[in-house]
Each structure stands twice: as structure tokens, then as C-alpha cells.
């Protein structure tokens, strides 16, 4: 049976992206998107809470993110969840879940930047790539 691993977010970039190059010379851009959830308490009080999502873009999309993404920009993203296992020097493991971005669209006014458009390529990377 088929399964689905798809994430769609609309949110704001929380800091300027960090660009790295892996040991196998692949470019990767890391950034965080903030989303908000609004709700009413049982007493009728309006509340909101923020959630922060770690995102990763590879290849050509990474280069475009490096060029155009800035803190505060509103973006629409599509991607998939990926959990990395990080082994520390002492042998313990930690886990980091990220969204591997496959499509990103700017939602701010057009005069701020060029649009990235949809990325049709699926960039493969090895789980061994360190960044």
C-alpha cells in the first residue's frame, strides 16, 4: 500500500538562510519557517502559538534560496519530512526532523525579488552527506 509524506507550509522566514557545502560538494541551504496557530480558550480568550519548522533545500533550489530568501519573507513551501540521525562523539544519537523542500514560492509583493517558481527536479542526496 502506498503512503504519503508531504508537507505544505505558509510562513515567515525567521532568519537569513545558512548555506553549506557537503563533504561530497553538494550545496545545501538551511532555514527556518515560523507558522502560527490561532485558537480560543474555553473562556473565549483569543490565543496564538508559534511553531518553528527546520527546512533544507538542495542543489539548484538551495542556490536560489541563498540568493532570494531573507528574514521576514513570507513563503509557500512544499516538501517531505526527513529525520536525520546524528551520532555524537560520545556515541550517543540524536534525531533531527526537517522538511526537505521541493517547491518554494514567494508570497510578498513581486517588486521585492524574482520568483523562484516550481522546481521540477528531485535532488538526491546521501544520508551520509554531512552539513
Describe this structure in words.
With 131 residues, the chain is mainly β. It has one domain: Nucleic acid-binding proteins (OB fold (Dihydrolipoamide Acetyltransferase, E2P)). Helices cover 8% and strands 50% of the residues. The protein has 1 helix and 6 strands, in the order ββββαββ. It has a 5-stranded mixed beta barrel. A hairpin with a 5-residue loop joins strand 2 (18-21) and strand 3 (27-40). The longest helix is centred in the middle third of the chain and has 10 residues, at 59-68. It is globular. It starts with 6 loop residues before the first strand and ends in a 25-residue tail after the last strand. The model is unreliable at 113-125 (pLDDT under 50).
Key attributes of the depicted protein:
single chain, 131 residues, mainly beta, OB fold (Dihydrolipoamide Acetyltransferase, E2P), five-stranded mixed beta barrel, 1 helix, 6 strands
Layout: helices, strands, pairs:
Layout: E1 7-13, E2 18-21, E3 27-40, E4 46-58, H1 59-68, E5 74-87, E6 93-106
Parallel strand pairs: 4-6
Antiparallel strand pairs: 1-3, 1-5, 2-3, 3-4, 5-6
Q: How many E strands?
A: 6
The value of Rg in angstroms is 17 Å
For the biggest sheet, the summary is:
5 strands, mixed, barrel
Per CATH, what is the topology? OB fold (Dihydrolipoamide Acetyltransferase, E2P)
